[in-house]
Design a protein that fits this description.
Bound molecules: zinc ion
CATH architecture: Beta Complex
Number of helices: 2
Number of domains: 1
Distance between the termini: 35 Å
Amino acid sequence: MRQIDGRCHCGNISYEFLWPEPGSQIPVRACSCSFCIKHGAVYTSHPDSQLTAQISDPAVVNKYSFDTKTADFYVCASCGAVPFATSKIESNEYAVVNVNTFEGVDRTEFDSTVTDFAGERVGDRLDRRKRKWIPRVTIETKRTR
Ligand SMILES: [Zn+2]
């Protein structure tokens, strides 16, 4: 496993992402939904990967959802970055991580495609996430108010 560290711009949200295919290019998808275009978010995931996130101050993290309301986008309210999004399906939390919040990963390691999931039925969307998204997700909070 390759450990990739990432964080939002101010560091309120940080994470370790375990990528199971070290040495291979990381497939990344520029989501073409209006939210991700506006945020410039580009995601990756792998069914054998793992995400462990730490949130320093949850009071300055907004969980934003829209449209089908099946995913929560973690938006740092301090710096505006979107490090990852999660989706709870049958009591398991799945995630995709925004490669633009990786630290120390060269962009030549990314293999980019553009995706468009508009019009996908909700059931198909959840099935796709179960197959492709990060299935082991831990979000730790350092401080609560
Ligand atoms: Zn931030």
